[in-house]
Amino acid sequence: MTDKPEIDFIEGPAPTELTITDLIVGDGPEAVPGGLVDVHYVGVEFDTGEQFDASWDRGQSAKFPLPQLIAAWQQGIPGMKVGGRRQLICPPELAYGPAGGGHRLSGKTLVFVIDLLGV
User: Fold this and answer.
1) How far apart are CA 95 and CA 12, in angstroms?
2) Residue 39 near residue 60, CB atoms below 8 Å
3) Which of 2, 48, 69, 88 is positioned for an S-S bond with 73, CB 3.0–4.6 A?
4) What is its EC number (predicted)?
5) What's the pLDDT tens digit per position in 12-71?
6) Half-sphere exposure (CA, 13 Å, Cβ side) for 58?
7) CB 114 within 8 Å of CB 86
8) Residue 39 is part of which domain span?
C-alpha cells in the first residue's frame, strides 16, 4: 500500500448509518477501541466527491489516539488490522454534527479511505 487511494463517486442517497467496507484486509495487529493508530487517509464529501483532506498530500501519516477522533472513526477503525484499507461512509451525526454546527463540514456525509499503518 504505497499509493494514495482514489475514491470513486458513490451513486444514490447518502446512508444514514456508518457504512464500513474493507477494501484490503490487513494481517497485522488489530486496532482496539481507545487505542493509538497510525493512518494514512483521504476524505471526500459524499455529495460532491470533493476531497477536503488527505494525509497523503502532506507526505506523512497521522498518529491519533482514537478517542480524539470523530465518532465514525472511533466506531469504524477498531477491528481493522495493520496493512488493511477500509472505507468509512460517515453520516453527519458521526462526523462533524448537523448543519450549522460551526465546522465547515457540519451537516455533510463524509467518505474516508483509511490505511492502517500501525497501532
Assistant:
1) 20
2) no
3) 69
4) 5.2.1.8
5) 999 999 999 999 999 999 999 999 999 999 999 999 999 999 999 999 999 999 999 999
6) 11
7) yes
8) 19-118
